[in-house]
Q: What sequence folds into this?
């Protein structure tokens, strides 16, 4: 049999965020929160702030807050009347403000804020005292400081970390790490509530108030409610040079919202640089000897990654690269290309598709490959026009549940995902595909029972 040299066509599939996907800071009309925030140096007596949803437009929403001792937050205000509040209350600096967020496919973003100036004795968080727009004198300022884009990277899965910037001039940088789920007690939930814990290391350089703007912040997020607790251990900047560095504490006193049980946070397709996997692909009808290939995560940024594929042994000599992303609409294959010289003769597929690698078998059909939070019983269907143009496949996928799977690399408690695929006119591109994904491992096994009677089996050999 002669050697057939073919090249897979690169493809691009763009997806949009599902509506209402973000629940870590829900914002239904009428939602309200009450927070207490204190600073061991600058606000030891604590301030109670009432927060409401002021307005919503498409995927953006604005929260308004005010010191509970002053005036209620105004749902209809278009400007902040700092001067009139000063004259009516006698305060040195009224605690009122607004903050705008955006729900995106990559998580929660902060797009704008406005408030009355911080108290006169608060550290100056800019290089100049004149017109400084930065502040840490409110509950939500302590939530967004150093990580406005994103405030919270989603989906929130085990092992996730991200870098972000903040401050008015993006002069504050941060690295955030998801630590997992734990029970936390706050006045709003005295019996305890399950929260997602995020630790953030923050650095600001060049501000007059250095190093108050730097330090380590821990935030507890409750699904269905929002942040319920913040502890910001500042690197310095206290009132005295010999005392301990200031610590800011924010706790939720009450809310109109009800917590929901967070979705499973296992990462079944980790995109970590350097992660390498070796797979064996067999098909008794078309592969006379097994095909063995390695998959290596060569680069990753902002929850997207490039995976390189290379043949180790077998009848297919291939090299390729694939781009994947994890977003709120799930794990998707953004693009892929592979070239191969092969002695194996597979049946043709429609839409100029080819199966050269286990990744081709895994991504074939429609997106997402996995939901963002793969809860057993979740079902999704083909129907996206761009997916159909790429693959020409219709069908249904569902998350079956977690089962024990044994492969040469070991035994795994793996998430089972089953797809029924139909590529009209092509029996090899049709059939039932079952995939098993290990937490923090990725694909461990794939069985594609093609409608032409053959079966492709992919197994993890080494991780």
A:
């Amino acid at each position: 049999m002669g050697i057939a040299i073919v090249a897979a066509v690169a493809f691009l599939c763009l997806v949009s965020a599902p509506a209402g996907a973000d629940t870590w800071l829900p914002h239904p009309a009428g939602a309200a929160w009450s927070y207490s925030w204190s600073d061991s140096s600058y606000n030891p007596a604590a301030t109670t702030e009432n927060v409401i949803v002021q307005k919503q437009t498409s995927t953006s929403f604005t929260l308004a807050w005010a010191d509970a001792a002053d005036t209620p937050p105004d749902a209809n205000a278009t400007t902040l009347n700092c001067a009139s509040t000063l004259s009516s209350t006698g305060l040195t600096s009224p605690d009122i403000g607004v903050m705008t967020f955006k729900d995106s496919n990559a998580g929660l973003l902060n797009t704008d804020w406005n408030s009355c100036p911080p108290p006169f004795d608060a550290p100056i968080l800019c290089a100049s005292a004149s017109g400084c727009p930065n502040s840490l004198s409110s509950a939500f300022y302590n939530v967004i400081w150093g990580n406005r884009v994103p405030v919270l990277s989603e989906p929130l899965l085990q092992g996730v970390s991200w870098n972000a910037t903040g401050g008015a001039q993006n002069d504050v940088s941060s690295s955030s790490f998801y630590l997992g789920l734990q029970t936390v007690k706050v006045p709003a939930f005295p019996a305890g509530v399950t929260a997602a814990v995020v630790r953030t290391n923050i650095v600001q350089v060049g501000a007059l108030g250095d190093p108050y703007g730097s330090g380590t912040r821990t935030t507890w997020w409750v699904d269905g409610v929002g942040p319920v607790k913040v502890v910001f251990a500042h690197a310095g900047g206290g009132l005295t040079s010999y005392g301990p560095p200031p610590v800011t504490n924010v706790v939720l006193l009450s809310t109109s919202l009800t917590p929901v049980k967070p979705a499973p946070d296992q990462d079944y397709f980790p995109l970590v640089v350097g992660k390498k996997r070796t797979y064996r692909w067999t098909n008794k009808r078309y592969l006379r000897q097994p095909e063995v290939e390695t998959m290596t995560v060569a680069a990753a940024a902002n929850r997207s990654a490039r995976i390189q594929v290379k043949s180790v042994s077998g009848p297919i000599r291939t090299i390729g690269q694939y781009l994947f992303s994890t977003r709120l609409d799930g794990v998707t294959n953004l693009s892929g290309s592979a070239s191969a010289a092969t002695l194996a003769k597979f049946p043709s597929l429609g839409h100029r598709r080819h199966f050269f690698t286990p990744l081709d078998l895994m991504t074939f059909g429609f997106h997402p490959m996995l939901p963002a939070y793969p809860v057993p019983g979740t079902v999704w269907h083909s129907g996206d026009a761009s997916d159909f143009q790429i693959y020409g496949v219709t069908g249904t996928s569902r998350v079956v549940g977690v089962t024990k799977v044994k492969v040469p690399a070991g035994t795994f408690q793996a998430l089972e995902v089953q797809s029924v695929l139909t590529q009209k006119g092509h029996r090899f591109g049709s059939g039932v595909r079952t995939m098993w994904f290990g937490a923090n491992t990725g694909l461990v096994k794939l069985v594609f029972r093609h409608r032409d009677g053959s079966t492709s089996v992919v197994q993890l050999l080494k991780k």
In short: The helical segments are 82-89, 139-144, 358-363, 385-391. The chain has a mean pLDDT of 90. The two ends are 34 Å apart (CA to CA). Residues 82-89 form the longest helix (8 residues).
